[in-house]
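Lab manual, section 2.4: Encoding a predicted structure.

Procedure: take the sequence of the chain (154 residues), apply the prediction step described in section 2.3, and record the output as structure tokens. A sample record is shown.
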Amino acid sequence: MPLIRTVDNLIRTVDNLIRTVDNLIRTFDKLIRTTDKLIRTTDKLIQTTDKLIQTTDKLIQTTDKLIQTTDKLIQTTDKLIQTTDKLIQTTDKLIQTTDKLIQTTDKLIQTTDKLIQTTDKLIQTTDKLIQTTDKLIQTTDKLIQTTDKLIRTL
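Recorded output:
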């Protein structure tokens, strides 16, 4: 009779082990899905960064144009005395362009802030994923130790 109880106990233990392994498989599947989501999010971050680079390039081009316009203004200083009205109009345009540049720069700052926030969230999510994976590894190690003890007992 003790042998039958031992075999019954072994069967229950093996059944429990199977359930635990099934749970582990489901957990791994969830981890895979979460990792896929992380990859998609990272791809979106890359796209956003590419857009930021394009916007920055456009800002550089606009700034170069502003520099060229300013150089022309310096070259025409002699004409300034004769064309005061024209200068006022050009200066107004420069102010408008500068305002647009300021607005564009503000948008760039906002975009950069959003990128920083998104990156921080990604870091936090990755940290959580690492913690969860560490816990899973610890639990799996405990399962292995328990199984080893069971095997040694048999």
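Check your result against the sample. The chain has a mean pLDDT of 90.
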